[in-house]
Amino acid sequence: MNLSQSLTMSSSLALVLLMLTFHNASAELFTALADMEELLETESVLIANLDNYIRVQEDKLNQLRRRSAEYQREHTEAAKDVGTYLSNPVNAFLLTKRLTTDWREVENLMSYDVGSEFLENVTNYRDVLKFPSDEDLNGAAVALMRLQDTYKLDTASVARGELNGIQYSTEMTAGDCFELGRQTYLNGDYYHTVLWMREAMDRLSHEVNRTTTKADVLEYLAFSTFKQGNVHTALLMTNELLELVPDHERAVGNKVYYEKELEKEAKQKALRGDDGSVDVPVDTTTIRTAKDNPHVYDSSERKLYEQLCRGEAERSVTETSKLRCRYVINKSPFLKIAPLKLEEANLKPYIVIYHDVMSDAEMEVVKRLAKPRFRRATVQNYKTGELEVANYRISKSAWLKDQEHPYIKAIGERVEDMTGLTMSTAEELQVVNYGIGGHYEPHFDFARREETNAFKSLGTGNRIATVLFYMSEVTQGGATVFPSLRLALWPKKGAAAFWFNLHASGQGDYSTRHAACPVLTGTKWVSNKWIHERGQEFRRPCELKPDHPEEF
């Protein structure tokens, strides 16, 4: 068997095996770590393909080296005494043979592209393996920026592979930092572009094998600096870029523009006075009004949300001293022999954590059933009631019915024991896996009065309560936080949080507005049951006097 035949057989066999093992993938892999795990399998296949490519290239070069050594040895011998060498008829024949049939074999070997089969493999793999898209790359970059902002991570530390002082990965190269900055630039995020382009510039000075040039970095860094309002520094960087690449078309145009802008600034400053002061308008873009999208929140809530995610907003001793832990049976006959461990997290509204309410076996079955059905998690449009994807919710979810597995049915029955509410009108069990920096910004689980179309198709009323199961330990981040209560619930595998979304009167409890903090490290799996009003009339009856605030 010759070299080309062995290559064709090995590559074909590998492709057949892959087609039996893998399936075509959709995009948005960055929204769930469960999907991204398969990318490591993709990388493993590609590495093996690359190794085989290198091996056959080396085999080809080794054959050529052996031929060259043989020819050089004969040529050196002939050069010692050309006449004597050629007077030997055997030598004359061999020289002629080397320059005819032998050399044609060498030419064929030199021209034969041993890598074509492996290049074709890569093309075919894209049909059967999961490959990330440009959208995934951009989504991963946005997630890193979200983590950097939420957890106040230093750029240089992240580039070193450190997250909150813990070394998790190898260092990023200047090229890695450059690409991260380029992705934020494409999103119009010039603040982060400047941070990461500066980091790329710092790393360029220490690297030997560079894939990125100083000119590449300066092009993005100069313009992003200008977009942040620093025209003078942008001009200095542009001049530096032109020293490296004098005919850089964009830089030439930008230089002229920056110089004109600086002339305008100088004239305006002269008109305003010596100090150059000017009235600064108030930024009202983060102030939410009643008519605005309820998923847009003001700057004070954002600040508190991020503090809670970092574990910085502590509750007072007066609040925490009233909280208790105990075993409960909740009027359930079954719980008399197997009481639940309850930990109070907040008294008003009443938020509790049940510990050890889902077994490892149940969690594995739930994950196994959910993975093949994962789709990008959606939210209801607050105006139309239609489901849609949103940047403030980054995860993938699936829905499981009780009849699909005895464990799913048992979980539903357990929720009924935990809450005292009927599951006859509850939604199916939703299973969620969060992706890179996966999060769900502050939101309500219940529909507000203006959301007239929400849950209309279900015909079961509003979401009266939420039960949230934690199905994994999260190394860092991933807390469930209630900003108005200054409360953070940290994921504990096998535990479940429970709270009422509505007052007993049926009005929404706005203090239950909550969020899922970005996952910094680790993976976060949760599942939840959303329980509806219909059927709860005698299980949670209205009180004689409305228990909701007067503004309703």
From TrEMBL:
Residues 47-81 form a coiled coil. It is found in: Endoplasmic reticulum lumen. InterPro entries: Oxoglu/Fe-dep_dioxygenase_dom, P4H_N, P4HA-like, Pro_4_hyd_alph, Pro_4_hyd_alph_FE2OG_OXY, TPR-like_helical_dom_sf, TPR_P4H. Residues 425-533 form the Fe2OG dioxygenase domain. It comes from the Eukaryota. Its cofactor is L-ascorbate. The keyword Phosphoprotein does not apply. It holds the Pfam family TPR_P4H. Keywords: Coiled coil, Dioxygenase, Endoplasmic reticulum, Glycoprotein, Iron, Metal-binding, Oxidoreductase, Signal, Vitamin C. Residues 1-27 form the signal peptide. Its EC number is 1.14.11.2. Belongs to the P4HA family. Catalyzes the post-translational formation of 4-hydroxyproline in -Xaa-Pro-Gly- sequences in collagens and other proteins. This is procollagen-proline 4-dioxygenase.
